[in-house]
Amino acid sequence: MEPLQLIATTAFGLEAVVSRELEALGYTERTTSDGRVEFTGDAAAVARANLWLRSADRVLVKLAGFEAVDFGELFDQVVELPWAEWLTEESSFPVRARCVRSQINSEPDTQAIVKKAVVESLKRKWPRDWFDETGPEIPIDVTIRRDQVTVSLDTTGRGLHRRGYRIWTGGAPLRETLSAALLQLSYWEPGRVLADPCCGTGTILIEAAWMAANRAPGLGRGFLAEEWPRLAGSSSEGAWKNARQEADDLMVEPPEVPLMGGDRNPKALDLAKRNAEQAGVTAAIAFEQVAVADFGSHHKYGCVVTNPPYGERMGEKKEAEAVYGDLGRLARRLDTWSVYALSAHKGFEAIFEEASGRTGQVRRRKLYNGPIQCTYFQYAGPRPPWM
Length: 387
Ligand SMILES: C[S@@+](CC[C@H](N)C(=O)[O-])C[C@H]1O[C@@H](n2cnc3c(N)ncnc32)[C@H](O)[C@@H]1O
Hints:
Shape: elongated
CATH superfamily of the largest domain: Vaccinia Virus protein VP39
CATH topology of the largest domain: Rossmann fold
Number of helices: 12
Helix content: 25-40%
Largest sheet: 7 strands, mixed
Number of strands: 14
Radius of gyration: 23 Å
Low-confidence stretches: none
Mean pLDDT: 94
CATH class of the largest domain: Alpha Beta
CATH architecture of the largest domain: 3-Layer(aba) Sandwich
Bound molecules: S-adenosylmethionine
């Protein structure tokens, strides 16, 4: 099989993290643009990227990139793509379109035109009036950015953040992919003490526990491309099986170092414990019902990685600000620790720094928690003696 052009999509701001993850998986040819990292690979790469990427949203197979400024051009280019190599007579192929700063700017119309062009192309191979679309799903992703069209197939299906351990998806938990990214953007590494004193449903700690066990985050779920004839069949036979076997083999016994979660809300903690159980990491994480003001540890050189409340709703702002002060005093008590906090609150830095005494030490990174623009505030502590 020819090498595939693959795209790992990600939240804006996390491209470098995903690129590093791909490097660690051995994919050296990469280019990065807003929200995507392109790389080349084979059927095994599709399986391995889906199984292992912690901070990406999806893995796409790129079929083509071209310029189009009207629907005629779009149709003419799409109809010529080798659809019959990927789709069968039975495939279901929903089309998803996104248009950004382009002359073609109607997403529903783009979807309709692309669908029509694909049907037209399939009819050339299988003459008939209608395709039932009862077979495996092969979603078509069309992104038009500044008149540049990218046509891809979504190998993932449900987003990669759906690891399979979250008991309940209500509330405002931090996405698994973003949680994993926060850890990778910090000095935390397996073997180092970690605390999240506003742990909510425990996502950051569960992701850390999986990283410490070198567990592939996708091991407990399925992916659409597992059912695709082109990737599951002959030439790439066993790619998924081999990738799953490799992931099983690479799991390790995690270092015996505490991962600590605190939250003052017993309901959130209950969910955190159930999520941890579902993820198989109950023994790795110590959860405690405790307010930030009372949180403590006798360990040295640990890392706090946390997502305190933002105080977005009226009346909650003051409460959130009080938590930032408590976090600052915690940072003062844990004076050998590094502290990392994601917040959308403009006042975080001033309040935290006054309370912690860590004035002027911050590094900031702009990240998105869904649609909310946040800052990841990073306060590195002293270098541990073993580093
Ligand atoms: C934005 S949520 C964290 C979400 C979490 N990252 C997750 O994945 O579910 C903030 C959490 O801080 C907790 N919290 C608020 N004030 C607190 C305080 N003073 N002490 C401890 N926890 C607090 C809330 O109960 C809530 O669970």
